[in-house]
Design goal:
108 residues; alpha/beta; five-stranded parallel β-sheet; two-stranded antiparallel sheet; 5 helices
């Protein structure tokens, strides 16, 4: 089981090299997500996370997760691990860190 903390540079490299075998989950509320998120991230608010992830994603899929702040992100990652997901990485610094390295974003 990997208990990874993901560096935004690594994630950006994976996206640029076209390695799509992973999912990025934004666990912030829908309003915040709509106003800006990492390109390609799916919105699954924290309250629905375990149930929606179980029905939508394969347990072996590599998942990157981020929230409002690192504590929020760590909590979401733990919820995913508790739900049986084995390859979960926390995006340190979330959206702000992503923007700092020039990562692509979507939203209003």
């Amino acid at each position: 089981m990997s208990n990874l903390v993901a560096d935004v540079h690594d994630l950006k490299s994976r996206l640029e090299w076209g390695q799509p075998a992973f999912t990025i989950i934004d666990v912030r509320d829908r309003y915040t997500y709509n106003h800006g998120h990492i390109s390609g991230a799916i919105s699954i608010p924290l309250d629905d996370l375990a149930d929606r992830a179980k029905s939508a994603l394969h347990k072996q899929r590599h998942i990157y997760v981020y929230g409002e702040h690192d504590t929020h992100t760590a909590y979401a990652a733990q919820k995913l691990r508790d739900a049986g997901f084995t390859d979960v990485s926390e995006i340190q610094g979330g959206l702000n860190a992503w923007k700092t390295v020039g990562g692509a974003t979507e939203g209003i």
